[in-house]
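Worked example 3. Consider a protein that binds zinc ion.
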Amino acid sequence: MESGGDVLLVDCGICCRTLLSRCRAAGIDPRRIVAAVFTHNHDDHVKGLATFHKRFPGVELYANIMTADAISARTGVGADEFILFENGQSFTVGPFDIKPFSIPHDVPDPVGYLVRAEGVTYFHATDVGAPLDSIGVNLAAADVATLESNHDPVMLMQSNRPEALKRRIRGDRGHLANDDAAYLVRRFASARLKRLALAHLSRECNAPHLAEAAMRAALREMGRCDVELSLLDQDDVSTWSYPRA
Ligand SMILES: [Zn+2]
Ligand SMILES: [Zn+2]
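Given these inputs, the predicted complex is written out as structure tokens:
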């Protein structure tokens, strides 16, 4: 997300070199990154942090205490390098007003974010085990949203993944199925929502057309075919810039 020349990073899950090249592809000078906020300690969210932090030691790192400890154990970046917050307590970084909120996932104290800048509110929640009302009320405040649409339950069931992993993914501290994401939007998104990106799609257990169809059906039911819908690809750069409602 960017505002007034400042850029806010959510997580640091790709290697630093890839992050820098994607910044350039998106027209963002990485030296404008002022802070990174973290959702949780899984590898796909912190893999690039150690190198990034070495290269850009001036970028502030924000996490709650359990996440900071868990990220530190995984990456070697000292827990005392993080500026701490508590879920539910808003804080400000440069032009960004940030509200971290709790989400269910199988890690210590995972986080979703509402970020407000230039009058636009951005919602960010991936790695969400269940479509809880407490997440929906935050989605209701969003003009722009990134929401996990992780898997299709049938594809997950039929995949070669070990049974324990399948159980974990579909468990209520795992990941959101396409229909769960569609339910959250149908039930909670308000007239404010203009743009929605589906994220964290499983390669093996989802297909972009299924994620898109589930969400388009929800938007149609709501009479909201005007919402600009896009699907984020792990290996690609989104052309979206935030904020722009
Ligand atoms: Zn995760
Ligand atoms: Zn993840």
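Take a moment to read the result before moving on. Residues 119-245 form one domain. The pocket of zinc ion (ligand 1) is lined by residues 40, 42, 105, 127 (CB under 6 Å).
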